[in-house]
Write a structure and sequence with these properties.
By secondary structure, the chain is an alpha/beta fold. The protein has helices spanning 43-50, 97-100, 154-157, 163-174, 190-201, 214-222, 231-234, 237-244, 260-269, 292-298, 312-324, 343-351, and strands at 3-10, 18-24, 31-40, 59-60, 64-72, 84-87, 118-119, 126-127, 137-141, 145-147, 183-186, 207-210, 227-229, 250-255, 270-278, 301-304, 336-338, 358-361. The strands form three sheets. Strands 3, 5, 6, 9, 10, 17 and 18 form a seven-stranded mixed sheet that branches. Strands 13-12-11-14-15-16 form a six-stranded parallel sheet, sandwiched between helices. Strand 12, helix 6 (214-222) and strand 13 form a beta-alpha-beta unit. It is globular, with a radius of gyration of 20 Å.
């Protein structure tokens, strides 16, 4: 029997996010209803609100969440009511060409729930990243649920569902940073600072944080940056990174902004045969113009990181264990805990750089 719960909806482009009654259908085959405990306010949700991802309004926002399985549908063998889970948007299919080649983090046919959640008037909702977790409960495919140690608080565990995983994975999975590697991260919001935490976890040194906001650079130092560069006061970030790496440039440079200007900085701030990782998300109209010869002369690798090239079933439990061991300070990403009515103001704080993460508590 379907249920009615409260959720955060945006009905049209750039409209205010409002709390509305939504209908959650019973789980179909391979699906699960999850009672949400906490959900982080991610920049991707703001992109949905502003129409930067699609125009399939109305959206049920929220996706960076942890909660408890309440119901499962037919054929679900690896979940049961009461399981504590982090939600993910990479429910791999296991049969596409990427999965068959042993690269499921590139899965081309990920799963979502089949039947839509709806507004009270019957209007179908588009759940953000196939999740829609700014709600008391949500309907997802069972593959979107990753079981983790319930000792990890939901406001911390849920952050692995998107932004923190994207940054950590950009450093460790995509960039392949390791002991003694020099790493520079351009843009120190939630994703960039997660990349810094990942580089620290891997034993990289030095770890150079670049941002125009001293508050964000302060967070970067707390999460493992050995040096910080503010272009407003320290000058050209490319030259600063070279100076901090013996004149060579960093082994890995991570662009967590995703603009042509920052990508060019990342490209020129890396060592010869170094690696650039793009994890910041560009907008469709952005164009990059650079001499092709420069790509040939410098060698190395130019990579894009989508969801940190993560495999949730592998990475989420491991990172939760590292957090519980005191080796990964996920709690430092939680700037404030808020209620479901405070999402719109949380967007404003995020846009102005006041927070790393606001987390909605249910």
């Amino acid at each position: 029997m379907s249920q009615h719960v409260k959720g955060v909806v945006v009905r049209e482009k750039d409209a205010p996010a409002t709390v509305e009654t939504i209908e959650i259908p019973d789980p179909g085959p391979g699906e699960a209803v999850v009672k949400i405990s906490a959900c982080g306010v991610c920049h991707t949700d703001l992109h949905y609100k502003l129409g930067g991802i699609s125009d399939e309004y109305p959206f049920l926002l929220g996706h960076e969440a942890a909660g408890v399985v309440e119901q499962v549908g037919a054929g679900v063998a690896d979940l049961e009511p009461g399981d504590y889970v982090i939600l993910n948007w990479r429910a791999v299919c296991g049969v596409c060409r990427a999965c068959k080649r042993g690269r499921p983090w590139y899965c081309f046919d990920t799963f979502n729930a089949a039947e839509p959640m709806k507004l009270a008037d019957g209007t179908a909702l588009s759940p953000a990243l196939g999740i829609g977790a700014f709600a008391e409960k949500t309907l997802v495919h069972s593959g979107q649920c990753t079981k983790v140690d319930r000792r990890a608080e939901p406001e911390v565990a849920g952050l692995l569902g998107c932004g923190v995983m994207a940054g950590l994975g950009a450093a460790i999975n995509t960039g392949g940073v390791g002991r003694g590697d020099s790493v520079a991260v351009i843009g120190c919001g939630g994703v960039g600072n997660a990349a810094i935490a990942g580089a620290r976890l891997a034993g990289s040194n030095p770890i150079i944080a670049v941002d125009l906001d001293e508050r964000k650079l302060g967070w970067a130092r707390e999460l493992g940056a050995t040096h910080t560069v503010n272009p407003k006061t320290d000058g050209d970030p490319v030259e600063a990174i070279r100076e901090l790496t013996g004149g060579f440039g960093a082994d890995v440079v991570i662009d967590a902004v995703g603009r042509p200007e920052t990508y060019k900085q990342a490209f020129h701030a890396r060592d010869l045969a170094g690696t650039v990782v793009l994890v910041g998300v560009p907008t469709p109209e952005m164009q990059l113009e650079m001499p092709l010869l420069g790509f040939f002369e410098r060698g190395g690798s130019l990579k894009s990181s989508w969801y940190g090239d993560c495999l949730p079933s592998r990475d989420f439990p491991m990172l939760v264990d590292l957090y519980l061991e005191g080796r990964l300070p996920l709690d430092k990403f939680v700037t404030e805990k808020i209620g479901i009515d405070d999402v719109e103001s949380a967007f404003e704080k995020m846009h102005s750089g006041e927070v790393l993460r606001s987390v909605v508590m249910f």
